[in-house]
Amino acid sequence: MADDAQDPDIDDLKRRMDGAMSSLKQEFATLRTGRASATMVEPIHVDAYGQPTPINQVGTVNVPEPRMVTINVWDKSMIGKVEKAIRESGLGINPVVDGPIIRLPIPELNEERRRELSKVASQYAEHARVAIRNVRRDGMDQLKKAKANGMSEDDHKVWSAEVQEITDAAIANVDRALETKQEEIMQV
């Protein structure tokens, strides 16, 4: 490969594709699967002291049972705000206040809700695939510019194959993650 200045930045492309995958994992973590998980409440922010604050910064989040999440609120004056934030979050869970502890009983998911969640997971995965394909397109655009600036045909083919290879690997990772999440959602 004659001129390294023309070569696409494969590490940058991989990093960006990995970013799409980690974003997908964060989105998957917010999906309720019928089993308790501390990550379910991570996206919830509480209006604490005039600032939107992540719920894990106003209390300790625990999973004492497979179908129960507890939040031990540190500042007793925040209990009502934490409860309100959970109710308004769209999780579909009714918090139960027990002194400084807020309990979140996770109800069993019915078949219809499982299918809906599975479709949402599929949409999240498709967004990740699109992001990965956009990174691939950027890499291919870099190659076209490099070819126009004198990159040899052989180098162009080698780099194109490399970009396609990392794209295929990233999309396979998304598909595996989706399959795992859908199995988790559909498990009764």
From TrEMBL:
Keyword Transmembrane: no
InterPro entries given in the database record: Ribosome_recyc_fac (IPR002661), Ribosome_recyc_fac_dom (IPR023584), RRF_sf (IPR036191)
Annotated GO CC locations: cytosol
Occurrences of domain Ribosome recycling factor (ranges): 24-186
UniProt GO BP: cytoplasmic translational termination
Gene Ontology molecular functions: ribosomal large subunit binding
Subcellular location, record wording: Cytoplasm
Pfam families assigned to the protein according to its UniProt record, in alphabetical order: RRF
Keywords: Cytoplasm, Protein biosynthesis
CDD domains: RRF
Family: Belongs to the RRF family.
Function noted in UniProt: Responsible for the release of ribosomes from messenger RNA at the termination of protein biosynthesis. May increase the efficiency of translation by recycling ribosomes from one round of translation to another.
Name of the protein in its database record: Ribosome-recycling factor
Organism of provenance: Mesobaculum littorinae
Gene symbol of the encoding locus: frr
